[in-house]
Amino acid sequence: MRVAASQLSPLILAVAMLLFGPAPAVPGEELSDAERTRREVLQEWSRVSKGQTNFEVSDPELVPKFLAHFARQSGCVYEPDIKKHPIRFMRIEGRRLSIIFCRPGISGSDQVFDLTELQKPRVVLFPVAAYPDGFGTTDRPGSIEYQQDTGIFRAEIGSDTSQSLGRYSYRYQGYDGFVVARVEVKKDLASEWTTIWSAVPWNIPSR
Asked: What is the DSSP string of 8-62?
């Protein structure tokens, strides 16, 4: 007996559903809030970076919204100084970083944001000397200069009105973050830098 086409089609569709699962989503299907946000963040990053890994942004209107929002939440006010101190973006040790000059503060400070996960930026902490005999951490290490040829980040703390100034040399080690290699101080602007601490290779006892 011949089976009518109108009877056969639903049967074939049912078998296909069992074998291959639901049909893929069609264009125009409503996205979840999380997926929509993820796509918007990626589109913003693509628009700003234009395929570059190392670049600067000096126009507050071009700062990605996700970064601007996170910076404000972190207490970073960058807009008044962005033309003089452009936001720097770089990729190093497999991580995506952004260096932003932030206020409040008399002289302000650079802050570093880890943008490896664009939807979850985080503030990067720096080890600093804690008087009189230890180390602490800060998210405002001062003015940061990156020496690409040596891989050293040099951060200087102080201002024209400071009685003393500090300078730190850091290496960035990916998941370990910034590692301090040297600490220098000088009592005033006219003085020379004096090293008060310098890292040496670890002397780990052998078994």
From this structure: HHHHHHHHHHHHH-SPPPPTTPPPPHHHHHHHHHHHHHHHHHTT-SSEEE--GGG
Q: Find the farthest-apart pair of alpha carbons in the chain and give their distance in angstroms, rounded.
A: 105
Rg (CA), the chain: 26
Between helix 33-49 and helix 65-73 the angle, nearest 10°, is 100
d(C-alpha 127, C-alpha 136), whole Å? 6
The candidate with the shortest Cα–Cα distance to 67, out of 93, 47, 92, is 47
CA atoms within 13 A on the CB side of 97: 23
Q: How far apart are CA 83 and CA 136, in angstroms?
A: 32
- Give the Cα-Cα-Cα angle 177, 181, 183 (nearest 5 degrees): 115
Residue with tokens 């049912």: 14
CB atoms within 10 A of CB 164: 11
Contact in structure between 110 and 142 (CB atoms under 8 Å) = yes
Note the residue count of the chain.
Answer: 207
Contact 156, 167 (CB under 8 A): yes
pLDDT per position as a tens digit, 104-159: 655 789 999 999 999 999 999 999 998 888 899 999 999 999 999 999 999 998 75
